[in-house]
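Open question from group meeting: does this chain pack into something compact, or does most of it stay loose? Before anyone orders reagents, we agreed to write out a predicted structure and look at it together. Recording both the input and the output here so the notebook holds the full record.
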Amino acid sequence: MVDLQSQYQRIKPKIDAAIQECLDEAFFIKGSQVVDFQKRLADYLKINHVITCGNGTDALQLAMMALKLNPGDEVIVPAFTYIATVEVIALLGLTPIIIDVDPNTFNITRQLIEPAITSKTRLIVPVHLFGQCSDMENIMNCATENSLLVVEDAAQALGADFVFTDGTIKKAGTMGHIGCTSFFPSKNLGCYGDGGAAYTDDSDLAIRLNMIANHGQSQKYRHDLIGINSRLDTIQAAILNQKLTYFDQYNQARQKAANFYDTHLSEINEIDIPHKNPISSHVYHQYTIKVKNGKRDVLKDYLTQHNIPSMIYYPIPLHHQPAYKNLGRRVGDSPVSVQLCEEVLSLPMHTELDEEQQSYIVETIMNFFS
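Structure tokens returned:
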């Protein structure tokens, strides 16, 4: 699904030199490379503050802790997403309000959010799934009108652009009160271990995020807030610093691969290729098709028989997960999310895909449906 070895080989001398520098300095926690990466990522995102942390799940937890949410506060979250999004809500004693998603973009919309809002609602968590932004203009308008906070889960859409009606363009994760991302190795910008970041334009929130990530410290051994211990180590920051230089090229390679898939798979009636929302660019963390007529699992097995990997992201909606069945509140039965879990199939998508590999993949799929 992801060829990290080939990607590494392309920039091996720079990665090796960056790691060696960290080893020589032996400053493995909060080294200068962490500060440099935070500044470079902030410049890339055109946002004031980036606070790195241990992983993407921690970034979500830091964001919700920094916003001073209280146990019982309601948080609106999509039914079709990775478990980390709702996991943090539950861990903090907040109440997840699970809503359905749009059948085309797989993201939540204002129309789906509004019926879920109550007097207890404090936060909306749009998840920019598979690589394109939710409709953040309408979501932010809804949040403003209802005095709600917004935390963007941008772990799968780092680098994607959202276009506002006035022509303004902003990066995924930079439109809400706080944005969160993950640097898990398979992400579009991935390190060689775990890593994550939260980012914001609000200086007061940035101070709180920094403090909470470091045991709530305002200065060494003075703990003004209850915090956690979550940080990006220096070696991972050094790796990310190198890969950030190539990040736009990586996303362009994914888009080129997606265009190849689109061209060759769009004529198969029993497949829906990914919908491209005109208000957002798509950076294709995943290339996810919908397979109709109950043939998804059979197609997956067929691909496996022909040595082609594929994955189901995600096989179970949040409100059907055993740990969350009786937690919080769900708005309706989320039929779109349930159906997506029965139809979606993600094909290989990474920076090193070439036409020969993709030709074999699409020919195999065509043979299955012929």
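Observations to bring back to the group:
The chain has a mean pLDDT of 97.
The domain at 4-99+107-245 is CATH 3.40.640.10 (Aspartate Aminotransferase; domain 2).
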